[in-house]
């Protein structure tokens, strides 16, 4: 993967799946998978929940707020875990960042 496509995930990031990547439920295996060209990744339940929030609109900070409220968990811990998980996926080419679009 070209170095120019790597992103650095922070609370201000608005991550999303790249155009060529899909999050789909595999009915045969009863698991969620990330499908990318010539690659498949089966994320755990928590990762799947976070990935559903990666719409390119929400920031990582907004995701952390939402997850902290849902699970009544410390926001700082959730934020650092979400950033680490998203950074790992971004490093592997499974995530990109939304760019501002001009009208």
Quick structural gist:
The protein has helices spanning 45-53, 60-71, 75-91; strands at residues 15-16, 22-26, 31-36, 39-41, 96-97.
Primary descriptors:
about 35% helix, about 100 residues, single chain, alpha+beta, two-stranded antiparallel sheet, 5 strands, Arc Repressor Mutant, subunit A
Explain the layout of strands and helices.
Layout: E1 15-16, E2 22-26, E3 31-36, E4 39-41, H1 45-53, H2 60-71, H3 75-91, E5 96-97
Helix pairs in contact: 2-3
Explain this structure.
It is a single chain. The radius of gyration is 14 Å and the shape is globular. The protein has helices spanning 45-53, 60-71, 75-91, and strands spanning 15-16, 22-26, 31-36, 39-41, 96-97. The protein starts with 14 loop residues before the first strand and ends in a 6-residue tail after the last strand. The protein has 103 residues and is of the alpha+beta class.
């Amino acid at each position: 993967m070209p170095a120019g496509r790597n992103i650095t995930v922070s609370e201000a990031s608005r991550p999303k799946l790249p155009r060529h990547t899909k999050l789909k439920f595999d009915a045969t295996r009863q698991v969620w998978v990330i499908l990318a060209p010539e690659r498949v990744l089966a994320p755990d339940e928590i990762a799947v929940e976070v990935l559903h929030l990666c719409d390119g609109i929400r920031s990582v900070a907004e995701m952390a707020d939402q997850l902290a409220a849902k699970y009544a968990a410390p926001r700082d811990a959730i934020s650092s875990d979400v950033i680490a998980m998203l950074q790992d996926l971004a490093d592997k080419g499974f995530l990109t960042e939304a760019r501002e679009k001009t009208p």
